[in-house]
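User: Good morning. I'm curious how zinc ion would be positioned relative to this chain. Could you predict the structure with it bound?
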Amino acid sequence: MIILGIETSCDETSAALLEIKQGKFKLLANVVSSSEELQAKYGGIVPEVAAREQMKCMIPVLQETLGDNYKDSIDAIAVTVGPGLATSLQVGIDTAKSIAYLWQKPIVPVNHLEGHLYSPLLESNEILFPAIGLIVSGGHTELILLNNFLDYKLLGRTRDDAAGEAFDKVAKLLGLGYPGGPIISKLANKGNNKAYNFPRGMIDSPDYDFSFSGIKTAVLYAVKDNPELKSKENLPGVVASFQQAVVDVLVSKSKKAIQEYDVKTLLVGGGVAANPLLRKELEQTCKTLQTNCLISPLDNTGDNAAMIALAGYYRYQNKNFIKPDPQTKSWQTITAQPNLRLV
Ligand code: KG4
Ligand code: ZN
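Assistant: Good morning! Here's the predicted structure, ligand included:
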């Protein structure tokens, strides 16, 4: 079967075609258009700017994804319904609903976090359960236990900032630009990760919750007390030490969960999964624990529709789709859910 995925939850506009044959995935197209450069001018995402850009980009992105050939071969349309920015989500949802209605195809509402969670399977779907899922994005940091596909137990989540948010805020306060993650991880390569000792929030707490606002504040005060830290010579050490502190917490909690639940697979997805240090340390940890480590392919760590099509496939198999009949109540439920939770 072939699933058309649509994703517009934040500042990306994306569409993808995923073919599923005998349980194997083949990505036929994955087009992502980002308003990142525009958002960078404002130092972060302005929802109105994001949605306006998405309205402009949606049709060209679909045209590029679909070409001339695919209308008849598409079996279902998967679309992100939340969590995310309400106006952005609505652009993708209305597009998906229009296509579903015109083409008379079922529509599969997808949770954005479920997309991130399963994104590693775009490369290898050799997943053994039970598994631990680590979702690390700009808006979320969650550790989830999976006993099977779609069968979740929340182990912990951030109590304040998400990991990606911490990267973005620290980059902003250091005057480095937006988005912070890629800028910091590049600059950190040149720095000493032991130059400064930033706090590892909640690393020893008995639960699986996270807290990243303390480390951001620690960087803020360190720089206020000593403006020299913002100099060209000192910055790499500051960001390398910050990055190490965030990675230490993520790796430590993941390791604890793998051991406690004796899991066979670790799944890692979300924008922060692009971080080379995090990838390396999680892979090493899994090797030591003899756990299969599946991290999202680098092309699919950030927001993209391929992961939405993929999560949509599991939802479709579970019969979580809605037939395109606007008269039904279930059709009305396909609407933006900005605060939608996975568990
Ligand atoms: O998953 P995503 O594209 O959007 C959300 O759903 O939030 O994640 C974006 C986040 C941003 O906070 C960005 O700074 C972070 O992912 N990010 C990184 C890296 N690349 C992107 N964080 C750390 N290291 C990176 N290399
Ligand atoms: Zn995301």
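The first helix runs from residue 36 to 42. The CA atoms of residues 11 and 36 lie 7 Å apart.
Let me know if you'd like a different ligand tried.
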